[in-house]
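EI: anyone free to look at a 93-residue chain?
SC: sure, send it
EI:
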Amino acid sequence: MSTFFAKYYTGRISLFISLLTSGYWILGNCYNVYENAIFGAVYELLWLFMLPLFLFVPIASLIPVILYPIKNNYLYLISMFLNLGTLIWLFVK
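SC: here you go
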């Protein structure tokens, strides 16, 4: 069994990517990104990278929770629930 997910820094990376992608989608829905041309162009360029990350990170965060249920996986759980909460918020709004 691989110990890659057992390392503490991978939980931090997962949480950072979750915060980044959730912030991106919330900012895009709360603020008119096309008001400024440069900001809108950057938003459109990042969209292609953020969509797979937004769908992949909760799945990648679930793997260590399943593989290592006894270890402290709270960063992975926070990451997973943050992305799932953002996804639910996007569908409800």
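EI: The mean pLDDT is 85.
SC: 👍
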